[in-house]
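Model it.
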Amino acid sequence: MANSKTVLPLAQRPLDFVYYAFFASHLCASLLLDCQAIYPERFVPTILVEANKMYISMTRDPLIGSVFGYFGQDMSQHMLWFKMFLYLEAFFQVPVFIIGMRQLRKGEFVPFTLRAPPDPVWLGCKYVYPLLLAYGASSATTTFACLAVLLTTPTTTPALLASNAPSLDTFQRQLLFGSYFAFFVIPLLMAVDMTFRIKNLIGKAVKAEKLE
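Modeled.
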């Protein structure tokens, strides 16, 4: 029988592995690209600035491009709400990525007691579940708004290009939508998953109280 120190490898927990990989990739994108919009300019290496310019030039991302002033000051001010999302990303999501990755690597079985069935119970990293639920719900909500912007951004025309207004051709829209959609569906899955995990833990606690 497994004891209280037995750890189930992350690779054997498919959803936790997906969340871990998502956090790792998102952490890199946040620190190196997204959060440039709120860093003091003197602290941003030239290579990262150029990488961001290349991304905006290729995709004409109406969200990132606007907060970086690519489409003019008026558009930058209009997208102030998205810049607030970037502050949320920097000061809430980035810490969640770090804490989440650390906790998702953990996991243990507990031996049976009077409060548990006569078999070891997989608890996983249960202490981080509420935080991941909050993150998932928050991130899915903010990204949903971003998807709406991508769907309603005008289709590129010569006139829009000449005026440097936000616009997307078919390829750019599909590329951006596919990219942002992943950042919507995985947090949404996480929020639903964590809700059921917490519900199950509460159910076990209620049953345990009845056994006392």
